[in-house]
Amino acid sequence: MFVNADERVGVGMDRRNETVIVPGVTCWRSAPANRYAPIVDGADYLRHVKAAMLNAQQRIVVIGWDLDYRTAFERDEATLEGPNNLGPFLNWLLCKRPELNVYLLKSNLRLLPAFDGFWFGVVPVSLLNQFTSARMHFAVDGVHPTGAVHHQKIVVVDDAVAFCGGIDLALGRWDTRAHLPVDPRRHGPGDAYGPRHEVAAVVDGPAGELLAEQARERWKAATGQALAKDVPFASPWPEGLRPALRNVEVAVARTLPALPQRSEVREIEALDVAAIAAARDVIYLENQYFASRRIAEAIATRLREQHGPEVVIILPRSSESRLEQESMDSARERLVRLLRGADLHGRLGVYWPVAGRGVSVYVHSKVIVVDGRLLRIGSSNFNNRSLGFDSECDVAIEANPALANCAEVEREILFTRDSLVAEHLGVSVGDFRDELERCGAFRHGIEELRGTGRSLRKLTDTMMSADKGPFAENDLMDPDHVPPSIAQSTLKLVESVVTWPLRRSLFGTWYQKLRGTDTNLTINESVLPTGDLAESLPSVPGTTEWDESSQ
Description:
alpha+beta, globular, disordered N terminus
């Protein structure tokens, strides 16, 4: 039976002296990582994934929302052995390693069942498996509710090294931390795209084996084929990647939707809410979306406290596709306004990064940092479907006072946070920390360093006012659980669209005031299946032009 997140994490209680990571409650399980490292942005991620694959002896498993054979690992001069594109590289590696098997699993949309068995464009999986190497295994995972997607992004090598984050091995993901406004290396294969910000993590040891178990479970659920657990002779840790921590406990948290044979799993929701409740000084968030009322209300509760934490949220200037803008951005407008109404003590900052020349950086990362206490990296967005409808997988580390490495873990968590902020501001970590020490407040340090060119811009009410629309917060586009009736959700959508002009009129405003309500803040309206909307529907290149003077 599903237990409400409030009951699981004790909302309303002071959790600031409790451990946030609790196996079976705020995560699936936890295990020690011999080595752990965060990886920021696609250029480093793709290179390190290839470096780990080069060390593979027995098995590579890639789990993703999307996979593309054309994905290039390096965009400058190639430094790693073998072909530079994913498909040719894997075939080359299979020729070199006679004992190696490769398993590639991607999600379908389960919107048009006739296309569920297709892998790339119009190529059926059965044909790929027939005409590629017998040790290259393709599958499309449709084991999810109608309208949901599998959004986990995991790469496992020899059941020993595992990558987890928000990056698919697909087109349009590569970029450096420089996020140049114009960069020819972001051209092809596929369409050109703008600056893009991503975050992932890599682990080995028992923590890597834990993620490997999750990958094997996904493969078995999708295909019915059980993969035996590998016993690695040596860790295929990517050469050249320096571990940020050694012998650190790593938690794995998931979202899994309800199925006839399985109850829903909402570990990520529980972890997010517990982390927010535990914060003392600073809650730092990066995400593609801000459309979950559950998360917004948890943050609003902390903002209303007289001595609560500062809250800094980094979001994209706008979503990539029109449908995302109509649904996710309209919900964001509503929920950010909710936060600003709760910000009684001036501790909230909501920003979007700009690369310079008016070109925005598309934020696709999914990160929570709470003080120097907890860091969560993964695939889950701050929207409803990531908390109860799509499948997601995140990893988290916590500075636990009961453990000998508490101070070391705390330093790494703070460094990760500060390096992300410094990247967005276009300054060094040292300069940001100097300003932080001088100002004495996290948000004030950001404000003092914001400027023209590459920097952070405030996401203002004026900017978001155009995002208002009838598709905000609906249980057809963005359900937080499997809807009991798609027909009922569709009717609610139609009702919301039809009544939208009236609700935005003077009569609607007068009626809301008469009732003492504001539908934008209090009504959770219903409304089209999307899968992590940014990724389950067609999108356009994510470059947004903006006036440099807008700060």
